[in-house]
Amino acid sequence: xxxxxxxxxxxxxxxxSVLAGCSAGGKVNRGDVDLELYTAxxxxxxxEFELERKRPADAARYFSEIERLYPYSDWAKRALIMQAFxxxxxxxxxxxxxxxxxxxxxxxxxxxAAYAQYILALxxxxxxxxxxxxxxxxxQALQALRTVIERYPDTEYxxxxxxxxxxxxxxxxxKEMEVGRYYLRRDHYAAAINRFRVVVEDFQTTSHTPEALxxxxxxxxxxxxxxxxxxxxxxxxxxxQSTEWYEASYKLLTARGLELxxxxxxxxxxxxxxMIKGQWL
Length: 281
Hints:
- The protein is mostly helical.
- It has helices at residues 3-25, 40-52, 56-69, 74-89, 93-106, 113-125, 136-151, 156-185, 189-202, 209-223, 226-239, 244-254, 267-276.
- Mean pLDDT is 86; it is low at 1-31.
C-alpha cells in the first residue's frame, strides 16, 4: 500500500470516529469542522464539551452558531441561555448581557427566564470595582438585581439577588465614605458632612452608618457646632453602642464636657426623633 493510500485510509478512520461521536453522544469532540454539516444537537454537544474543557469563549461561539443556523428550533432556545452563561464565564459581560436580554425578550414565560435575568444582573454586578472607581455599574447592578427580586420573588435567584443587592448597596455607601474621609482629612468639613449625611439618610441600613455618624461628630466639633455633634453621638449611643465608633465619639465629646444627647432642631435631631419612634427614616 502506498503512503498516499495509507493517509487516505487514516483520514477516513478519523472522520468516521468524529461522526460516530456526534451520532452517539451528540458531541463534536475535536477538530475544525464545517458546522453547517451537523445538527443543532451535535453543535450544542460541542459547546458543552468546550465548557467541560474550561473554554467558555469557544463554547459561546458554538452556542451562537446554533442560534444562527437553527434560529427557530428548541435547540436555539436552549443554546441562547447557554450562550449567556458561557459569555459570562469568559468575562465577556456585554455579550453575556445581550444574550440574556434576548432570552428574556423572546421567552419571558420560560422556566429559564429567571435565570437569564439573573445572569443579566450578574453581568453588571461582577464588574463592580473598588470604591475608588466610578459607581455607574453599581447603580445598574442594583436596578437589574431589583428586577430579579421583584419579577421572580419565589426563585432561588431572587434569594441570591437579595444578598448581592445588599452588598452592592453597601458598596455605594462605601464610595460616599471614601470621598467624605478624603474631604475630612483636608479640613473641608462642609463637603465631608454632605457625604456622611448621604450615608446616614440614604444608606442607613449599611455597615457604614456607625462610622458616618462618628465622622459627623468629628466634623461638627471641628466647626464648633456642638449641638449637631452631640446629636450624632446620641444616635450612635442609641443604635450602635457596641461599636468602636460609639466609643471614639464618646471620648471626643466627654473630653469637651459634652453629653451624648439630642439638641436643637437640626437634621440629625429629626433623624433622632424618628429613630426613637421606631421609624429609621
